[in-house]
Amino acid sequence: MTSFYLCPNTGIGLIFRKDAVILSFSAPSGEGPRSSDLKWEQNKECAVPTRRLRLCLQALSLSSQHAKEVVSILQSCPHLSEVDLLGNKLGDEGCSFLMENLSWISISKQLDLSHNFLSINGIYSLLKAVSACQKVVEVEVSLYHNTAVLRFTEDGEFASSPPR
What we know:
Layout: E1 3-6, E2 13-17, E3 20-24, E4 53-56, H1 67-75, E5 80-84, H2 91-100, E6 107-112, H3 120-130, E7 136-142, E8 147-152
Parallel strand pairs: 4-5, 5-6
Antiparallel strand pairs: 1-2, 2-3, 6-8, 7-8
């Protein structure tokens, strides 16, 4: 079953399929060029403005078995501002895998792993992995409130660095 939604103000279309979510970008009619209208000429540069996207994968029952696919998706999206994985079932194993790959994922603002069945060991693994990522400026974790939110600086991409 496929569903399609179009936001008339932005021209962004969302296509939901059983196994995929597809974002389609185009300018509203009369407000700017569509991607197919951009013409590339020899020896000229055409600057396309960078979009910052928020990826919301809330409450999709994603488990540790989906962690590799989630990391692959995140690695292929270089302009994410926020990633919301709230309310899934990644658990310690899935969140740890995500954290191990944090240096190769570009998120400019926030990663929300709240309500993903993290134990004290999972939070320890998260904090250990975060210490190697220089872009993390704030970590909010609470077993009582089931929160795990990482906030990042907004300049450039992630870079591995020695532990702090």
